[in-house]
Amino acid sequence: MGKPPNLYAFAGNDELAPSLRAYILDAQNNAIERHNVFRVGVSGGSLPKVLGKALLQDNNADGKVQFSKWEIFFADERAVPLDHEDSNYRLVKEEILDKIPAEQSQPTVYPIDVKYLDDVQEMADQYEQKLVSVFAARDSVRLPMFDLLLLGCGPDGHTCSLFPGSPLLRETEAWVLPISDSPKPPPKRITLSLPVASHGIKIAFVATGGGKKEIMKQIFDTEEGRQLPCGLINTFAQERVSWFVDYPAIEGVSFPARRGSL
Ligand SMILES: O=C(O)[C@H](O)[C@@H](O)[C@H](O)[C@H](O)COP(=O)(O)O
Predict the structure, then answer these.
(1) pLDDT bucket at 261, cuts 50 / 70 / 90
(2) Nearest residue (CA) to ligand 1, atom 17
(3) For residue 76, which atom of ligand 1 is closest to its CA?
(4) Does residue 29 fall inside a structural domain?
(5) Which EC number applies (predicted)?
(6) ipTM above 0.95, yes or no
(7) Number of domains forming the structure of the chain
(8) Which of 34, 116, 219, 248 has the most neighbouring CB atoms within 10 Å?
């Protein structure tokens, strides 16, 4: 048995952001030392805004965000044009990429191929091929290993676009999966599979607000919650997982949280 996931709690996003930044910088520096690149998978929802807050602070105070070494992939994406209001790419662009000061280099970003908006299976296959080309030939790695996965947690316990009870949770081979009937709109999406989403060197969840407290209680304090997508990642990845939450999100949670710092 490994160690349990880490649960870090803060008064609000302003207090959470510097610790998230320190955690990301540590993952970045280790990755650059290991292979001179930082491969990150990122979700949508409320996450990109918090990431912007964490990453776009003064770049010299506590280490440097080296965006030129970043390769950003989407842990899940909606099958919509890249400038559509539902696009996770658009969110990441508006909250982070567009705000990187001009003197810094931009990261390499891997959006979905919008040629396949009408065929999510093809879109998922194409995105998987992108991962294959970056993470090595398919037959030489069983799973791509992200240096860091930055994920959200839905009020039903979903993460990426892996929803509770979905047959997609049983996938063991594919890296990227199509969805045509997502319970959260829009219905058509692609997502990393559970084995890939559990395989990051580090995995961070960001979950804030009182709307998350019931699901946090389930995920951390109940057996049933451990079967939800977020709970399964906790179980599979154990101490490689860190949760960054605010106090309202863990009100009533018994699982011990470290409050106020990493
Ligand atoms: O495309 C999506 O729907 C998101 O990637 C999704 O997986 C998100 O991370 C969670 O729904 C949490 O969203 P909030 O942080 O907004 O609650």
Answers:
(1) confident
(2) 154
(3) 5
(4) yes
(5) 3.1.1.31
(6) yes
(7) 1
(8) 219
